[in-house]
Amino acid sequence: MSAPVEVILTSEVSGQLWNICVWDVHSGTVLGTFKGGSSAPRTLALLRGEYLISALNNKPLLHVWTIQQRDQTCQKVVCPGRVSALTTASDGSYCAAAISERIHIWEVSTGKLLTVLSRHYQTVNCLSFTDDVSHLVSGGEDNLVLVWNLNSVLCPDRSTLGEAEPKYSWSHHSLPVTDLYVGIGGARARVVTSSLDHTCKLYELASGYLLLSVTFDVPLSSVRLDPAEYSLFAGGVDGRIFQAHLFTQPVRTDRHVGKEDEEQFHVFTGHSKAVTSLSMTLDGSTLLSGSQDSTAMLWDISSTQCIRTFPHKGPVTNAVIVPTPINLVTPNAKPRLPFQTFKRQMETGESNVLKVCLSGVQESQSEDVSSLMEAVLHRVSEQVNDHEVESLEEKVATLQQEVSKLTKVNKKLYEYSVNELLK
Amino acid sequence: MAKVSKKTKAKKKDFQKVKLKLGKKLPKSQNDTTTSFKSRAIQLKDQLKQSKDEPQTHRKQNITELLGQLQHYSPTVRLAALTGLKQLLTDHPQLIRANLSTLLDRTAESFVDRDPAVRRAAAARCAMSHVDAAVRADSLAPLDVYLEFLPRTLAAASPRILRDFLELISRRRDEKDGGVAGSRRALTVDPASRLSTQRWRVSVLRRMSVFLRAYHGKEATTATERGRERGGDGGSRAMFLYGGAHAFTAESSTCKLRDVRNHKHRNAVSDAKEASLDGPMQLTAFVDTLMPLLLDLWVESKSKQSGEHLPESVLSEEAATVVEMIFEVILLLLQYIERASRDSDEISVTWLEEKYEKELTQHFFTNFPYTLTDTPVGTGKKSKVRPNRVQKVRALNVNIAVATALATILGRVERPSVEQQDLLRKAEQYAAEVVEATGTRTATDLREMLALVAKLLAARSTRNGGFVGEASEAAYKAFACCHPSSAQKQRLLEMFCNVALETPPGGSITSLDHWLSALPVTLVQLDLSQCGSVSSVLALMHRAASQQRAAFLTSLQKQLTTILGMLPGMSHEQQKTTLQLLYFAKTLRKTHFHVLVNWVRSEATDMTLVKYLLSLLNGRLAKQLTSGEVWTEPSAYISYTISLLVGGSVPKMAEQQFPTMPLLSPHVYAPEIDGGSLDGWPRQKDVVLAVHDSIRLLPNSQQVEDLYLGHVEQILSDLSL
């Protein structure tokens, strides 16, 4: 049997049987489980398809599993506090975790704590990198959505420049931000946020403008765009999931989805409690929702019918659809991404010695490029010995003769054409 | 001689023969009838024309004719045509739009009319570059009108107008006497002028500052419109296009006009570069031209003043005006530079600082703060007219302007020298003094003053927090004595709350916390009819609440009951914001819920808001439950929801003799509970449904159920007693 294209990862509060479970999207069979504790909401993340990271619900710990060794015990990383949101960069270079109102960013390959961002006033509820790892978006209990430019945030001379400033600070929500989703397109992506104030807001990352605000009649607990960004899915705290089309006419910047026009907006009814997470397959035809009523449901979008229900022991905290990690189906593979335990404190007294990652897997942006260049040049100059220099000089001499010969010929040609042909 | 009887004589007389003589006039016969007649002339002033579609003046002239007559050789006709136009256009303003281009063309021509009456009548643009000095003088009056009504139109022609301004007070220093500095200008003195040169220059400067401000405003609006357009708002795009077209027509006509004039009067030196504000290069050039002029102007007026043997920090009346105008222009230029520096790196305030800091310090800043002389008593009437208060205000204006410029220019310096620090210190002390006396200021002064404080704060924020505390303390003193609903109080509150909210929490400046804790108190004191100020205070409170500022939350906790009591008087949006505060409040007690229940029960309350409140409280509870904190207010919340379900208070029901409360049976929703009327029934049903939904959605169902049951039992046992 060939491996499925995509798999479902879910976690629930109780963690009685397992922490994280892997399901087949189509058949609904369990492909594997990861044990140890239970994950906090919005903290489950894959690290380049080779590791699985999640933060514990009640302890200041991160659990890291290697994908192929699923039944073995996991690696534990101690954090400065309880993690309320966690995300990883798509290329596996960084991991960002929110610990109350601070955002910690680690470099995965060295485990270095690169920076701590503290511009939120209250707990950060959700975090997301853009798909090109150029920006980090964070939304918090203090109604703010902040966009951080990673290049400026991770600048090595941060200490001289002072506190890192967010690129944008969106303060349109009037109650805590519960979820956010960054679309496809790197720095030009669109960001959609949901909040307890009954609204979803769509922003453009490039300009920072608020493009659209959709008001629903319930507080919202999760949000998602389909891969083509045609429609917006918002999960309410009453268990309903709304689908709002983004291309309806007339174009308005402020829309209200009320009870009276529910025909225009599809509603998925099935959950009885707050929808905590939404996720979609790549083809945009099926939607996965996890809810506090201890079920995760798979929906067919075009018919708004529930295809399959995944029962859980407790409220579902994470439910995501991810492309099948290769290591999951090839048991003997080994992770190529080096993983170091995250450090709890920023390194002080930077040493000048550089660790160059020769396997080429990791390209660290934080390291000083100029000194790296010097090191390379130094190595090059060592290798070139005297003998090679001599032979090169000879070559140069012959080439110069060649050039002068060619110039002569060219001059003759020119004279001939002027004198004979153009007479 | 025979006696002829009297009778015969009389008879003969009747029939006497009339002798006709040659050369005499023929006597008229007795039966002669005069056939000639006299008549009055009928004067037709106008032709009888009936045109219903074209509006006309009372002289029945339409706009085309009037425009034609503007070019008539006779000044009287031209004047009459202008008066006619004025009347026509005031009566039918729609004509302006239709004929704008021709209208502007023609009226503009008449500004340079020889005849003074016509010139005065032409209510429009400037003829500032005219050779004749008198024409130039008059040109400023119509410019004022233009500035007032069509700032945008004028702004479109900015480079030319700015150049004309320069031309008015200075002349280009020629190569022969100027030497190396080719673009340097020198102030001109017009010996023939009636006005004193100084006063003339000041009046030009005043116009210039108004113009610069107008231009600034135009740029800002275009920018916002562009922004909104990008935001996808179709309506504003159309508006923007219209605005552009409007500006374009006006510009084209002006350009034509100006070009003609340039060829006539000047050798059309292409110094447009010198007087445009659009690009950073041009701006630099303009500032370079203008700044020396301003400094020269000051030096001249100072030298005049020095004759009066006054200390340097004391200004005479005239000098004060000069300083005021100079700084108004400088401040505007600074604004331009700041904005330009945002777009490109070629220009910044630092550049200005490097170039002119020495001169400005030497001439202005050292003597700061200024005082005005008392007008000498001996000069007669004038001194009596001018009361002392006016002078004080003037001095304040001058000082604020100087201090703002100082703060802007010196605030950017990376490592200020000792002198610079002293100057900044002086400005800060002055600002603190001024702020403390705020109670006596008018609103406009206050705005400028707060701008100054903001500048100083910006300059200082990176260095030390000393001034922030100082200013906020001073302002808080003033704030405390203000009338609760005064505009000053509102402004101060907004300004300092914003400062407080922007500084990171846990800072050392305690006086900023005063402001935050003052917010709920202010809201309570406010009159709900002042919708705008209530909303802005609420917005600030919301921000403070979402940042979980400790000082604010404590104060809110104290005032929460009163604030909730104000709910019925607020507008829909304000109610919503107030409810949102509940989400962030520290603890909700029974008294709070009591007020809320009354609010929900009132007929006037919007049902959507009730649902909003329920979902909000629900969210609050869910947060407390999931975060593993102790559920601090369960009994209050449960009794709240139950009393909502019941629809009447427990003592009231006891009065109405419902000894066995059927709380758990369906009869609980029976309308009798509400005193027998059926009106409240549908509403109560909605409330009950909403409450039911919200209870259902609470996490940890089992726990919630136990709590509710316990509570209901409690109520029942109370009732049976």
TrEMBL record, chain A:
Tell whether Repeat is among the UniProt keywords. yes
- Pfam (any one): WD40
WD repeat locations: 117-152, 268-309
- PROSITE patterns for this protein: WD_REPEATS_1, WD_REPEATS_2, WD_REPEATS_REGION
InterPro entries of this UniProt entry?
A: Quinoprotein_ADH-like_sf, WD40/YVTN_repeat-like_dom_sf, WD40_PAC1, WD40_repeat_CS, WD40_rpt, WDR18/Ipi3/RID3
Coiled-coil residues are: 382-409
> Gene3D superfamilies this protein is in?
YVTN repeat-like/Quinoprotein amine dehydrogenase
Q: Which SMART domains match?
A: WD40
Top-level taxonomic group: Eukaryota
Task: State the UniProt keywords alphabetically.
Answer: Coiled coil, Repeat, WD repeat
Q: Spell out the PANTHER family in the cross-references.
A: WD REPEAT-CONTAINING PROTEIN 18 (PTHR18763:SF0), WD-REPEAT PROTEIN 18 (PTHR18763)
Q: What is this protein called?
A: WD repeat-containing protein 18-like
The species this protein was found in: Priapulus caudatus
TrEMBL record, chain B:
Q: Where is the composition biased (Basic residues)?
A: 1-27
Top-rank lineage group of the source organism: Eukaryota
Region entry Disordered, spans: 1-39
Residue ranges with Polar residues bias: 29-38
Location comes to:
Nucleus, Nucleolus; Nucleus, Nucleoplasm
**Which keywords has UniProt assigned to this entry?**
Nucleus
In this chain the Pre-rRNA-processing protein Ipi1 N-terminal domain maps to: 124-212
Q: Does the keyword DNA damage apply?
A: no
Predominant location: nucleus
> Which InterPro entries does its entry note?
ARM-like, ARM-type_fold, Ipi1_N, TPR_TEX10
TEX10-like TPR repeats domain spans which residues? 513-709
User: What family does this belong to?
Assistant: Belongs to the IPI1/TEX10 family.
- The protein, known as: Testis-expressed sequence 10 protein homolog
What organism is this sequence from? Answer: Priapulus caudatus (Priapulid worm)
